[in-house]
Amino acid sequence: MTKDIDIIAVGYPSLDRIIKTEDSISIGKTSIIQNSDNSKIYYGGCNVNIAYTCAKLSLKSMLMMRVGNDFQSTGYRDFLQDIHICLDGIEVIEEDVTSNSYLIENDMGNHITLFYPGAMSDKYPVHIDEEIIKRAKYGVITVGNLEYNIAFAKACINENVPIIFGMKCDFKAFKEDALKYLLSSSTIIFMNEGEKKEIKKLFNLKDICDLFDNGRCKCLVITQGKNGSLILCKHNGKIMKETVPIAKPDKVTDTSGVGDSYIAGFIYGLVHKMSYMDCGKVGATVASFIIEEMGCLGNVPSEEQLKERYKLNFINNL
């Protein structure tokens, strides 16, 4: 079958509202909201963030997920169609609404997330069409319904579609056995420093590189905030390591969605046959745009903008 789709991404879609407070929220205390746009809906979800950003960068993206009866009325459908994301894998649950979130951020940049799973609740049956999976070059798994994610991973393995896993230490979304299965099934794994520590502890690993010996993993990416990212890959039996610095943003406004944008940039590099190290540089460059404006998708660059900033930060042309 022709591989006409660069990525299929699964996970929770989300209608996000961002609430900024001056201090940390605590029980019995009133916190004053700082941002006047606190009721504005931002279209998001890790899978949507990645698919949308990839589409803006001229890749062919598809989403596989369930949405609710508000998919059209909220403008979500048009938002995705306008960027030419393929919706063939989307199922509408008429008796529920699309999953949604309230993202609460204090002045230190720390987050609390309140989430309603809606149409992606585990009370609805999972339908994965393997004929759709066959069309993809990569399958991307993010935080989502556990049963849905596992079924998607199994379908990708059945159809020899490499899995890219956006790790999150959310043990409601990723229970221990399922997490172990996804880690061993994935070709490329993304995590941050905190998630790395949790994985080492949970699975009693001496070194995170032990993941290379326990499955299909070819590349580990550990994001390190302002310190950039660490790329680890196995080549001819040896572990290769390289630190990729951040790309400089024009300003820092909101950190929401930075990790997802990094993954999308990395995928852009993969599709264009770049080395893992250069993929990391593309990821860093895309992330530098997202941090400049509010919301996970508030400042997604075009392919031309990406190329221009990449050259400014990393000298070479894309």
Automatic annotation (TrEMBL):
SUPFAM superfamilies: Ribokinase-like. InterPro entries: PfkB_dom (IPR011611), Ribokinase-like (IPR029056). GO terms for molecular function: kinase activity. Keywords: Kinase, Transferase. Residues 7-301 form the Carbohydrate kinase PfkB domain. It holds the Pfam family PfkB. PANTHER family: RIBOKINASE, SUGAR KINASE. This is Adenosine kinase.
